[in-house]
Specification:
By secondary structure, the chain is an alpha/beta fold. It folds into 2 domains: about 160 residues, HAD superfamily/HAD-like (Rossmann fold, 3-Layer(aba) Sandwich); about 55 residues, no CATH class. Helix content is about 50%, strand content about 15%. It has 11 helices and 8 strands. The strands form 2 sheets. A 6-stranded parallel beta sheet has the order 5-4-1-6-7-8, with helices on both faces. α10 links the parallel β7 and β8. α9 runs parallel beside α10. The longest helix has 14 residues.
């Protein structure tokens, strides 16, 4: 069995269920750009199909500006730990791994630390990095929400090889970023549409919750 040194977790919709907060941040962003807000049912349909940008952002608005504003105002008001979150983090600690959060939010990492303390998960977390940190460190974001640079930086910081790490996330760009860094990726989503996109971008396996993710990590490291 390979040694597991690092577990990298996406934050929103992976470790923490922030779907309602996602919806509120999206409507705040639409309002900021003078666009009409959408209903929750319409949001959920487009979210599952990854068509929010295609359907909601008109051509005259730079999508990069739109989504950077979105990830700056994204905050946890109705959030709760995802199913199996504490169990997963605890089990990864038993493996001897470092649990590291890498989030697409563009806020100082102290804000995410405050949130994980509120959920009493901070004792299992070793480090947190955000897109704010990436830009602060002069990192490269090749496309929106690309985390490749941060993942490679984390491996080098801890002297770990890609084979000694695993990443979990719910979005296709997470899977692509992980693949770019050579790290095995486990998708976490209950939606079939998003699972399909995760597989298409290199996910080794897709699970419905973090309870299932523990077994998936074990299987990956046993290969």
């Amino acid at each position: 069995m390979r040694r597991l040194k690092i577990v990298i977790l996406d934050y929103d919709m992976t470790l923490i269920d922030t779907l309602i907060d996602f919806y509120e941040a999206l409507n705040r962003t639409l309002e900021h750009y003078g666009l009409e807000k959408i209903s929750y049912s319409e949001f959920l349909k487009l979210f599952k199909e990854d068509r929010l940008g295609l359907e909601l952002v008109p051509d005259y608005i730079d999508p990069r500006d739109f989504w950077r504003y979105f990830r700056r105002v994204y905050e946890s008001r109705y959030a709760r730990p995802s199913k199996g979150a504490e169990y997963f983090l605890y089990m990864m600690k038993l493996y001897g791994a470092r649990n590291i959060i890498v989030t697409g939010r563009e806020v100082p990492s102290v804000k995410i630390w405050w949130e994980v303390r509120k959920f009493n998960l901070h004792r299992y977390i070793d480090e947190i990095y955000t897109m704010y940190d990436l830009h602060l460190m002069g990192g490269i974001e090749r496309e929106l929400f690309d985390k490749s640079w941060l993942l490679i930086w984390i491996l080098r910081r801890h002297g770990a090889s890609p084979e000694e790490a695993v990443m979990l996330g719910d979005y296709w760009i997470d899977a692509l970023s992980s693949r770019n860094a050579g790290i095995a990726f486990i998708g976490v989503t209950e939606y079939d549409e998003r699972a399909r996109d995760l597989y298409m971008n290199g996910a080794e396996v897709v699970v419905k919750n973090l309870y299932e993710a523990v077994e998936a990590v074990h299987d990956l490291m046993s290969r």
